[in-house]
Amino acid sequence: MSYKNYPMVSRVVFGRGSFNQLGDIIAPKRLNTKAPFIFLVDDVFKGNSEITSRIPLAYDDQLLYISAENEPKTSQVDELVEQIILNHKDRPSGIIGIGGGTILDLAKAVAIMLTNEGEAKNYQGWDLVKTPAIYHVGVPTISGTGSEVSRTTVLTGPEKKLGINSDYTPFDQVILDPELTNGVPKDQWFYTGMDCFIHCIESLNGTYLNAFSQSYGEKAYELCKEIFMDASLTQAEAQDKLMMASWHGGMSIAYSQVGVAHAMSYGLSYLLGTKHGIGNCIVFDHLEEFYPEGVSMFKAMKKKHNIQLPQGLCAGLHDDEFDIMINVALSLEPLWENAIGKTWKQVITRSKLKSLYQKM
Ligand code: NAD
Ligand code: ZN
């Protein structure tokens, strides 16, 4: 048995207002005294001077506003890389992603593709990246995905939705400033927060579980319970705790895997473009048979926060569309093996998945 030797985020700052330190933190990383930093910023912050006035632009640094309306695509990564190469004669000093999972994943992928030849789609998979990425920094503005700590960047390509999983993917620096999550709309707070909760449930109930994953998973689970079920927390406390829950949830799946909800939600996302957080919620709501306690807790949280999930998403779909979703879901073998065990193929048949999708 050979154990994986994982890289981690090498530096992290935590604290309300710590975003103010971004300029000081990146300054020593500037190459050739003036090679630019490229800031990829969620366009929800356009015109929000509270955030934008604190982005430390100097020399030829460039700020690109990016919509998080759609999840990152391999073609979008390729376009950004081309644009950056065409616009700057120096290779950038670094990429700084400021936003949710969508923007963080884009920042990681762009940092990798600036030093690796060809197209992003060629690197979807495990350990296909050959050359270290350029310096990259993640600044989450919504909590739950764990993208800020993870070793993957999830991209939708022409053939599949699959991450670039590599030792070069994790951020070199993360800035955890819970104040940045101030403007997150309530429904989105719930969906992305539930991504973290579902990471915990899938990790803690998986066959890949080990003490490493369990220790992180249990902590994140406990924090989620407090945040989503305990009304006595102040908003600032809840923000701080959710940011740390996201971190721990991400660490928990590093050494294990996610499970049924993620496999099926990838199918929804690939066919219908359903976003990760809400897609996981839509699927998880129907997974009592796999995760009885997790789903009942989820339903209680949903009720407490008065969240109405979309219904009938798959109502009008044709058989060939169900097939597309089922193919995507079934292709994620490690997720099923974690969720069900080595004999998962006996339980998870195409008709089983179809009947589950039909409920959604
Ligand atoms: P997101 O980045 O898609 O953002 C969701 C919405 O919240 C967007 O409309 C965005 O503009 C808005 N938003 C973000 N911060 C805000 C703020 N402070 N104020 C107001 N609005 C704000 O959401 P997400 O759930 O964080 O990320 C989902 C993505 O993360 C998916 O693409 C998914 O594949 C990816 N993901 C990656 C990993 C990983 O390990 N790499 C893990 C899980 C999910
Ligand atoms: Zn997730």
Explain briefly what this protein structure is.
With 360 residues, the chain is of the alpha/beta class. It has 14 helices and 9 strands.
Throw out a few tags for this protein.
alpha/beta, 14 helices, binds zinc ion, six-stranded parallel β-sheet, binds nicotinamide-adenine-dinucleotide, single chain, globular
Strand and helix layout:
Elements (H helix, E strand, L loop, with lengths): L10 E4 L7 H5 L10 E6 L6 H4 L9 E5 L7 H14 L6 E6 L1 H13 L11 E2 L9 E5 L13 E3 L4 E5 L7 E4 L9 H19 L6 H19 L5 H20 L5 H13 L3 H9 L7 H13 L14 H13 L1 H8 L3 H4 L2 H10 L1
Helix pairs in contact: 3-4, 5-6, 5-7, 5-9, 6-7, 8-9, 8-11, 11-14
Structure overview:
The protein has 360 residues and is an alpha/beta fold. The protein has 14 helices and 9 strands. The protein has helices spanning 22-26, 49-52, 74-87, 101-113, 186-204, 211-229, 235-254, 260-272, 276-284, 292-304, 319-331, 333-340, 344-347, 350-359; strands at residues 11-14, 37-42, 62-66, 94-99, 125-126, 136-140, 154-156, 161-165, 173-176. The strands form 2 sheets. A 6-stranded parallel β-sheet has the order 1-9-6-4-2-3, covered by helices on one side. Strands 5-8-7 form a 3-stranded mixed β-sheet. Strand 7 (154-156) and strand 8 (161-165) form a beta hairpin. The radius of gyration is 20 Å and the shape is globular. 51% of the residues are buried. The mean pLDDT is 97. The structure holds nicotinamide-adenine-dinucleotide and zinc ion.
